[in-house]
Structures are given as structure tokens and as C-alpha cells.
Write a structure and sequence with these properties.
9 helices; three-stranded mixed sheet; protease; globular; single chain; mainly alpha; 5% strand; hydrolase; M48 family peptidase
């Protein structure tokens, strides 16, 4: 009987929740709970990781974030976003529920210009506004047969559910579907903000050049770099139209480091 109630709940929410791309979603956790989880995880990271306080790096990142948030509709209950640049050579960035964005200094050597960094940040914002972390937590709740799993989640599981990357002991990484969806949402965000969407493909060329013995796509939770570039190129005509429209409306972000 308990399982039938859970199934009924899932069928109900499947008809009520869709991602920005129109995909049906399982969302069982309130935005308030997810935002609290994101804030706690971010505060924990700030207490353990050196923060880059240089004006040039912070103003550069904040310029890109502000430009992209200016064209983004966030319906997760976040009024303002916090942006931190962390001193870490790992080429990584993330966004968390609760309006938290972190960029590692190692990303600057891979995202070689403002447009490429906008592709990274737009992708991460895409994860948040598409509620991908919520989906991961909700899916784990269903797998456990409980709707109170959040009460027993440990910090590593929370970090994984929120998509903070393998560096933080992820147990619930984003799926290939989530990654591909975030790529497309991010592409649209950066184009609307006046960043050249073509640079998203160049970003992944840079990432691919890093090598590192990545696993085969079928064994990984991330699409291969080649797949990502193919999907981005397929979506490029629409993105270029949005980009041209943004330029005509005067959106030309002057983000420099």
C-alpha cells in the first residue's frame, strides 16, 4: 500500500513538473529544502577552500554572472546569488540551489575568454533552474522507498545530489541527460546575454585537449566531448538568432580580467 501511495505521488508530480526544455520531471522536494541544502554545502566549502579575493578575477566572474542572470528566469525562490572565486587549480565551476556559484581559478586556463567562461557558468546555472539536483534527490528517495530521505542524507550525498563534482565525494552525479540539457539551457542563456554561443564549442575543444584518460561515454555520467560539441552545433542556429537579437538590443557585456 505504501508503494502504491508513492507511485501515485510520482505519477501526479510527473504531470505537474517540466524542465525548461519541456522534459517531464520527478520533483518531490520543496525548493526551500533544496535551497537550504545548497547554502549549507556552499558554506562548508567556503570554510575549507581558499578564496581568491583579487578584484580583477572577482569582477570578471561577477560581470559574466550578472549578465547571464539578467536574462534568466529563476523560479526556485532565489532572490539574490552569491558568487565566489576559489583558489584551486582544478578546471571546475558549479552552481547550487540557493543561488550559489563557485568558479575555481583553474577554469581560467581552460575557458580562455569571457564567452567561453559564460558557457561554463550558463551551463551551471542551467542545472539549478532546471532543478537537476532536486531530481537526483527525488530519484534517490524513490529508490529507497522513502519520502523522508533528506533527514538521513550525509554531506557527501548532499554534495553529489547538488552536482558539486567528483572532487567533493559525489555519490549522485548528474546524468548524461542532465548534462546535455544544461548544455542547451546554458547555450540559450549565454546567447541571450550577448555572449557568442559559438565559443561553447571551442570551450569543449579546450576541455577535450586536457585528455586525462576519460572513460568511454557509455561508462560515464557525462556525454563525451564529441557528443557535446555535436549537440551544441545542432542547437547553434537558434542560439545565433538569440545572440544577434541580443546584440541589436545593446547587450554587449564588457567583462574583462
Amino acid at each position: 500500500m505504501k508503494h502504491l501511495r508513492i507511485l501515485s505521488l510520482v505519477l501526479f508530480v510527473l504531470h505537474c513538473n517540466t524542465s525548461p526544455t519541456g522534459r517531464k520531471q520527478i520533483i518531490l522536494v520543496s525548493d526551500g529544502e533544496m535551497n537550504e541544502m545548497g547554502t549549507q554545502a556552499f558554506d562548508d566549502l567556503k570554510s575549507k577552500t581558499p578564496i581568491d579575493t583579487r578584484n580583477n578575477t572577482n569582477s570578471y566572474v561577477k560581470c559574466i554572472v550578472d549578465s547571464e542572470l539578467g536574462v534568466t528566469t529563476d523560479t526556485t525562490g532565489v532572490d539574490s546569488w552569491e558568487v565566489i572565486v576559489f583558489k584551486d587549480n582544478t578546471p571546475n565551476a558549479f552552481a547550487l540551489p540557493g543561488g550559489k556559484i563557485g568558479v575555481f581559478t583553474g577554469m581560467f586556463s581552460v575557458a580562455k575568454n569571457k564567452d567561453q567562461l559564460a558557457a561554463v557558468i550558463g551551463h551551471e546555472i542551467g542545472h539549478v533552474i532546471a532543478r537537476h539536483g532536486n531530481e537526483r534527490v527525488s530519484q534517490n528517495q524513490l529508490a529507497s522507498g522513502s519520502v523522508k530521505l533528506l533527514e538521513t542524507l550525509g554531506k557527501p550525498t548532499v554534495a553529489g545530489a547538488l552536482g558539486m563534482g567528483a572532487k567533493f565525494g559525489v555519490l549522485l552525479p548528474f546524468s548524461r541527460q542532465h548534462e546535455s540539457e544544461a548544455d542547451l539551457i546554458g547555450l540559450e542563456i549565454m546567447a541571450k546575454a550577448g555572449f557568442d554561443p559559438r565559443e561553447s564549442v571551442n570551450l569543449w575543444k579546450n576541455m577535450s585537449a586536457l585528455g586525462g584518460g576519460k572513460p568511454n561515454e557509455l561508462l560515464s555520467t557525462h556525454p563525451s566531448d564529441e557528443t557535446r560539441m555535436k549537440q551544441l552545433n545542432q542547437a547553434m542556429p537558434k542560439a545565433m538568432a538569440l545572440f544577434e537579437s541580443a546584440l541589436q538590443s545593446g547587450k554587449k557585456p564588457n567583462c574583462v580580467m
